[in-house]
Amino acid sequence: MTSLAIGALSAQTGVKSPTIRYYEEIGLLPSPPRTDGNRRVYSVETVRRLKFIRHARELGFEVEAIRQLLALADDPQGSCAPADGIALAHLRDIDSRIDRLTALRDEVRRMVNECAHGPIGACKVIEVLADHTECLHDHH
């Protein structure tokens, strides 16, 4: 079995050493065995698992969802329905954030476009920020 030092694991996965140690602390990665000199040594399986975690983080999955997905991945004969459910919930969250950001962008664009660029007393940006009822959207 090939074993890797933390630097080699970091180089193969693109995950920095402090992040690798953090993932160990929170249980996403198992604690690795150590050498007589107390250095961590990682297996090739850890490379696969860490790449999985990194990709899931890049896609915006939260740590708890990743923990659940890893547990599902550890049981290849299990149903993928729970994984689909986790991904669907994440997709709904992404859609919700996009909706809120779109409303936010529209509101700020409207404030800027309606500003007459005159004295501050007539500034639409200041007016809207001071009075939420001037906004087009209730939530943003």
UniProtKB/TrEMBL annotation:
One of its GO terms (molecular function) is DNA-binding transcription factor activity. InterPro entries: DNA-bd_dom_put_sf, MerR-type_HTH_dom, MerR_fam, Tscrpt_reg_MerR_DNA-bd. SMART domains: HTH_MERR. The keyword Transcription regulation applies. Residues 1-72 form the HTH merR-type domain. Keywords: DNA-binding, Repressor, Transcription, Transcription regulation. PROSITE patterns: HTH_MERR_1, HTH_MERR_2. The keyword Cell inner membrane does not apply. This is Transcriptional regulator, MerR family.
